[in-house]
Structures are given as structure tokens and as C-alpha cells.
Amino acid sequence: MKTFSNTLVAALIAGSLAWSLSVKAAPELLQLKLGDGVLDVEIAVTQSQRSQGLMNRKSMASSRGMLFAYPAPAYFCMWMKNTYIPLSVAFIDAQGQVINIADMTPHTETNHCTQRNATYALEVNQGWFAQHGVRPGTQVLGLEQSPRAEY
Question: Are 149 and 70 a contacting pair, CB within 8 Å?
Fold first, then answer.
């Protein structure tokens, strides 16, 4: 009986450990304020995170988005390969000002590029920027809390 109890306890511990390792940690969120809206955004600061972006996601809450942080101001483009959600992207300079905004169609490889050097790109559900009065020149508040981007 003692052997059975020890085996059962060991099995429960092993199962709990396996389950805890398989559970993904919730992404770190950053709160941004722009226009008359507030967003809780995931942050992509590594090349790997920026490459993955929102690919293969089937949905996203209306007040959520993803902030792509770059290590230095640069000219860059975004696309929608393997992305199911219609998105809008705002390109943002180092001072936190929106440069330009583009609407993007799911599953396309059309490049949507910043009109001048940018430090951030912010992807949200398509139409969110228009609904909240965000346009070129809008100031984004909260970017100073973003972790530093990596190459």
C-alpha cells in the first residue's frame, strides 16, 4: 500500500510539473494612450518577436494591439503573411508622434511602409485609429515605459 501511495504522489507531482511547464506565461502588456483611446499592447522587442508579430492569431480584443519596438530609427515595412485579423498599423517616430497609418488586408504580402524613419509600429484591429481620432501627428503616450528593443 505504501508503494502505491508513493507512486501516486510521484505521478501527481510529475503531472503537475508537466502541466505548469506547458502553460504559456501571459504576454507583458504596456498601456498606451492616443487620440481618445487607451490600448493594452503586447511588446515585440526582439527580432524574433517582431518577425512573429500577430501571425496565426484568429482574433484580438478591441482594446488590444502589438507594439513593435526597433533599436534605432529606420525605414521599414510591415506585411500580413499568415495574419488572419484585418489590421491597421501606425508608424511612430522616436518622439512618439504618429508618422503615417495604413490599413492592411489579411493574408497579403503587400508592403506597408513608414514614410520616414520610425522607431515603432503599432498594430491594432482595423478601424481602431479612425474610431479614436488618431491621425498623423497624434502623440502616443506611454512609449517611455517600453523595454529597449534588441537587434
Answer: yes
